[in-house]
Amino acid sequence: MALDNLRAFIGAIDAAGELSRVERAVSVDKEITEVADRCMKSPGGGPALLFAKPTLRSGAASRYPVAVNLFGSERRMALALGVTRIDEVGERIAELLNLKVPDSLMGKLAMLPRLAEVAKFPPKSVSRPPCQETVIKGGDVDFSTFPVPICWPEDGGPYITLPGVITRDPQSGVRNVGMYRVQVLGKNELAMHWQRHKVGAAHWRAMAERGDTMPVAIALGGDPASIYAASAPLPPTIDEYLFAGFLRGEPVRLAKAVTSDLEVPAEAEIVIEGYVDPREELVLEGPFGDHTGFYSLASDLAPHDRGPPADGGLLSRQRDGADLHAAAPAHDPRDRRSAHARRGHLP
Question: In angstroms, rounded to a whole number, what is the distance separating the alpha carbons of residues 2 and 17?
């Protein structure tokens, strides 16, 4: 059975004996990363961590827990993708790629069940999604009230580190979901870090040429296959939520965003909606302690993502949402497991 949301995934990890709950107060200002770093460098990648009482940079207690290292072992990666072995994903893809249409009528009829399986993958639209149970608008949006961590001493600020950044090509309408780090600049301002070769950056350039603002949605949480799909090196024409549906064996449920025509994961814990205005000056983003073990230097190539001028942005969430982050240790051991998972859909 597919795991529909972050809570189900954490529950499955707990049932598998791979979750450690941290009940003591731990600060989002480098303390969570320090604990996670030691954990992930332990044999087997260590357990997943659920910080029940994170402390905000202000010193106040967070209303939301923080989950880290959920994908940090091969067993948990397989659990996220709904398989017993990670190689099963590659085997399923290879089977589809080798699908050849037979000459005989009986052969064609025999293919119908496999073709029907493929037809199950496209996302499904739903109304009244859990991710919009609580909607915060305008001046009430304040990222400092959420447990966004500062990971390393030289980091330029707090970073959202495991998001699904949702954009759409203004010409073709093709959606992209990318996993790009996002720096918190202020109360309701973010800096988008999408490298020049990334699809999100291509969408931004196309919108800038038209002089249009670009709507952006940032999803935290959702089903684990969709979280993984945002990081997968897919061709630009392959929809990440279609791929996640293939991994899950059933469609990903999406809902229309509140402020734009973008679609967001219905089961996301938190969704941030805003826009990037190409007429605004680029902002300084970084530095950031990267998974390579080195800092990515500060860059002035980052566009703002801020809420619409009329209301300052929008944030929606489940009533008791959890926050999800990736804290990358130096020379991140998770890169090997992620590469293993990707092997099935690389040439």
Answer: 19
CB proximity list for 338: less than 8 A, separation 6 or greater: 71, 77, 231
pLDDT at 312 > cutoff 50 = no
Within-domain flag for 93: no
CB atoms within 10 A of CB 250: 18
* CA atoms 61, 222, 259, 231: torsion sign: positive
Q: Which residues contact 20 (CB under 8 A, 6 or more apart)?
A: 39, 47, 48, 49, 50
The interaxial angle of helices 74-81 and 6-15, nearest 10 deg, is: 130
For the chain, give me the number of helices (H) and strands (E)?
9, 23
Provide the CATH number for the domain around residue 63: 2.30.110.10
Q: Is residue 59 part of a domain?
A: yes
Contact 331, 293 (CB under 8 A): yes
pLDDT single digits (tens) 70-102: 999 999 999 999 899 988 887 877 776 565 555
| CA 286/CA 169 separation, integer angstroms | 26
Work out how many domains the chain is built from and give that number: 1
d(CA 9, CA 222): 9
pTM: 0.85
Start-to-end CA distance of the chain, whole Å, equals 29
Q: Is residue 112 part of a domain?
A: no
Strand 314-317 and strand 268-276: pairing? antiparallel
Residue 274 lies in a domain: yes
Q: Is the dihedral of CA 228, 213, 171, 199 positive or negative?
A: negative
Instruction: Give the pLDDT confidence score for residue 306 in this predicted structure.
Output: 47
Asked if residues 207 and 214 have their Cβ atoms less than 8 Å apart, the reply is yes
Domain span holding position 67:
6-82+119-345
Residues serving a catalytic function are 290
Q: What is the pLDDT of residues 227-237, one digit of tens each?
A: 999 998 888 87
